[in-house]
Amino acid sequence: MRQRKRPEAPMSPVDALRRICFLLERGRENRYRVDALRRTLESIRLMPEEELRERAQSGTLKQLKGIGDASAAIITEALRGEVPRYLAAVEREHGDESDWAGSELYAALVGDLHVHSNWSDGGSPIEEMVLSCVELGQEWMALTDHSPRLTIANGLSRERLEEQLGRVDAINASLGG
């Protein structure tokens, strides 16, 4: 079965946060927790590592938008070259990919034909979904967010769809596709 490579120290704070979010989603954990960690991820994704290290050492990480006690600990532990304790706990609970129902069937799949992003009623950003597909060994995914007719699912208007298609084009270009 294709599996994500288990995290080993050292790892970047971004990689630690991404793995935690993936496992929490796979375990169908509280959406609020995943969203909070994704906000942390967005706060630090483009920050130079040296600045992040300085903030961790000076104890000022929590001054950044979206960073609380738990996410500050994840960042600090990853910067120290450790597997963050939070990640280790989530790995113990949700990290065994061999126990997935249908794991043999999944191993034969090369793509996902029906995914919804957080642009409509899905839970993850498109970029994160693409990275997860790549890391899981998939070759493609079909983004199937809802049309404007399904307002209860935050269906995409023509303008939002055009914006989303631009984002998809940029992601494809960044992956060489």
From TrEMBL:
Tell me the InterPro entries matching this sequence: DNA_pol_lamdba_lyase_dom_sf (IPR027421), HHH_MUS81 (IPR010996), PHP_dom (IPR004013), PHP_phosphatase (IPR050243), Pol/His_phosphatase_N (IPR003141), Pol/histidinol_Pase-like (IPR016195)
- Segments forming domain Polymerase/histidinol phosphatase N-terminal: 111-177
Superkingdom: Bacteria
Q: Which GO terms describe its molecular function?
A: phosphoric ester hydrolase activity; zinc ion binding
Extract the signal peptide range: none
- Identify the GO cellular component terms for this protein: cytosol
Q: Which PANTHER family match?
A: PHOSPHATASE YCDX-RELATED
Name recorded for this polypeptide: Polymerase/histidinol phosphatase N-terminal domain-containing protein
Q: Which organism is it from?
A: Intrasporangium chromatireducens Q5-1
